[in-house]
Design a protein that fits this description.
Layout: H1 3-29, H2 58-77, H3 104-121, E1 124-131, H4 137-157, E2 168-175, E3 179-187, H5 190-197, H6 210-228, E4 231-237, H7 248-258, E5 260-266, H8 324-332, E6 336-339, H9 356-359, H10 369-378, H11 380-388, E7 403-405, H12 409-439, H13 450-481, E8 493-499, H14 507-526, H15 531-540, E9 545-550
Parallel strand pairs: 1-2, 1-4, 4-5, 5-6
Antiparallel strand pairs: 2-3, 7-8, 8-9
Region (Disordered): 42-72
Pfam family, one: VWA
Biased composition (Basic and acidic residues): 59-72
């Protein structure tokens, strides 16, 4: 019989054996057994079961992966958001407190676990870099109490895993205007460390050369790390962002060459602001802000406009993240920024804050200055937001002149001229914010990042709303100045009241009013339970238009 016919004759038996073999494997092994090619260089992870659909595409899978990666980044840098005093509440969810309590001591004990893990891996050197300014007094005290307990336990119990005390060496550095090496030579004598903790001097200059001090620490202890073949951990304890945070890119490069992990224990940054509205806890005489605690992004991404609506709430908002410089340095060195809430500090106090699970989806972009600028150059909307957010503060049009008595034409004209001067003073300030945003509007739909989308839409909505109010106020006064008849002859007084219309002021201003409303409502709908939605709601508390009412 020809060979081909012999093969065909045996084929049915081969198929039967193959099927029985597969069934045996499927029944006997179960779902948890993984088969892999023994020649594969790396072990592949088991693939989770998932339903397939015709609408699923590779592009969507890549977008989902990018979102997960961003959430992982945010989770690493996320700030716990509950004040110890309990006065701060979330703007949403019925005003209940959110997040988890975190004192300075809690975060020091958390870092003790990192220290133990590092020592278990290899001999380790830790350098504590402590803010010695007046405002950081409470942080220093809490750090000192927790650190003494940790080193006291190391003295009594020894290091984990039976490691020798020589496997952990400690140095202490303080800073303010100048750097002070409190415990300069790293020591493994835990009692010596405990004694040095109480020797940190107080600096009353109000200046914080944070990054200059970190630079000196890298230079001094980086070489020693290599000589002794130790892991190097640097922990910064401070309540501010640092006067010299703009030097962070240089430090990121240097940290990479040394091989150091940087951790920071600090306060949350006010959203989109360098300085919170609360009174500072210290003073300085060089013209710089006394307490620089933000922003959470490399440059502010929030326009500086006061709210026209009344009420007791300020503009401060808890960003949910630490100041950019320290957070960026920690992220790039595989460290972490840990936020504490102090018992007596005014900031963040009762500033609104938002669920961690929500804010995790809006992480800042931890980019170098060069990459940040490149991103701005590629999108006119982002560049416009960057320009608008750096403009002077725009005052609120809270109590403009609104009541005008007819009869004496000369007096009426004088009153109207005076009222128009209010609009004339605010107009260039509003335009400086609105114009760059409007110029970049055509690139708005190209923005992919959720934080940038929310930030641009909020800025555009607020700028358009304020421009519509100011220009509309001026135009309504001009209409009255040109002559306006009372519908009721017994009336002799005109009153300009806020209203959701600018039809009488003209189609251009009515279109701008609708533009503002559209942007603000989009923020509320697309970014619910976020600081951006909260600020959009506040802007909409005040009607964007005006109407004349006669009495």
């Amino acid at each position: 019989m020809p060979y081909r016919l012999q093969f065909r004759g045996l084929a049915p038996l081969g198929w039967i054996f193959a099927v029985l073999f597969c069934v045996t494997l499927a029944v006997g092994c179960g779902d948890n057994v993984e088969f892999r090619n023994p020649f594969d260089k790396e072990k592949k992870q088991p693939v989770a079961k998932q339903a397939t659909s015709a609408g699923t595409s590779t592009k969507k899978q890549e977008e989902k992966k990018e979102e997960v990666d961003k959430e992982a980044l945010a989770r690493q840098q996320m700030i716990k958001t509950t004040t110890l005093r309990g006065s701060g509440t979330s703007r949403f969810n019925g005003g209940r407190s959110v997040g988890a309590n975190a004192t300075v001591g809690d975060n020091v004990f958390r870092l003790a676990k990192e220290i133990e893990n590092s020592v278990d891996f290899a001999p380790t050197m830790i350098v504590w870099v402590i803010d010695s300014t007046v405002s950081a007094g409470e942080m220093r005290e809490d750090w000192a109490n927790a650190a003494k307990k940790i080193y006291g336990e190391f003295e009594k119990q020894g290091l984990p895993g039976g490691r020798s005390a020589d496997d952990l060496s400690t140095a202490i550095v303080s800073f303010g205007e100048k750097t002070n090496f409190v415990l300069e030579e790293p020591t493994s004598d835990f009692q010596e460390v405990i004694a040095a903790i109480d020797q940190i001097p107080t600096d009353d200059s109000g200046k914080e050369k944070t990054f200059a001090t970190i630079d000196q620490v890298f230079d001094k202890y980086g070489d020693l790390k290599k000589q002794q073949r130790r892991e190097l951990l640097v922990v910064v304890v401070t309540d501010e962002a640092g006067d010299d945070w703009m030097d962070v890119d240089t430090l990121v490069d240097k940290a990479g060459s040394i091989g150091v992990r940087v951790y920071a224990i600090g306060l949350p940054a006010p959203m989109g602001r360098q300085v919170a509205e609360v009174p500072p806890a210290e003073r300085r005489s060089d013209g710089f802000p006394a307490m620089v605690q933000g922003p959470e992004t490399r440059f502010p991404q929030r326009v500086n406009m006061k709210f026209s609506a009344g009420g007791f709430g300020g503009a401060d908002v808890d960003s949910g993240y630490g100041p950019f410089g320290l957070s960026y340095l920690a992220y790039q060195t595989r460290g972490e920024f840990l936020t504490s809430r102090l018992r007596s500090a005014a900031w963040p106090g009762s500033a609104p804050r938002f669920e961690d699970s929500v804010m995790r989806k809006y992480p800042p972009q931890y980019l170098s200055a060069a990459k940040y600028q490149a991103m701005l150059s590629e999108n006119k909307a982002l560049a416009g937001l960057n320009r608008a957010a750096t403009q002077r503060e725009v005052e609120a049009m809270t109590y403009p002149a609104s009541q005008f008595k007819a009869g004496d034409e000369a007096r009426l004209k004088t009153a109207l001229d005076g009222a128009q001067r209010t609009a004339a003073r605010l107009e260039p300030l509003v335009n400086a914010v609105y114009d760059p945003l409007a110029e970049g509007e055509k690139d708005r739909d190209k923005i992919q990042d959720k934080r940038w989308q929310a930030s641009y839409d909020l800025a555009m909505g607020r700028a358009a709303a304020n421009k519509a109010r100011v220009d509309g106020y001026n135009q309504m006064l001009a209409i009255l100045k040109g002559g306006r008849k009372f519908e009721d002859p017994s009336h002799d007084t005109w009153k300009l009241e806020p209203a959701d219309t600018l039809d009488e002021a003209g189609s251009r201003l009515e279109k701008m009013r609708l533009q503002a409303k559209e942007y603000l409502e989009r923020v509320i709908q697309e970014h619910p339970d976020t600081p951006w939605a909260y600020l959009a709601e506040r802007e909409l508390e005040m009607p964007i238009g005006w109407k004349w009412v006669e009495y």
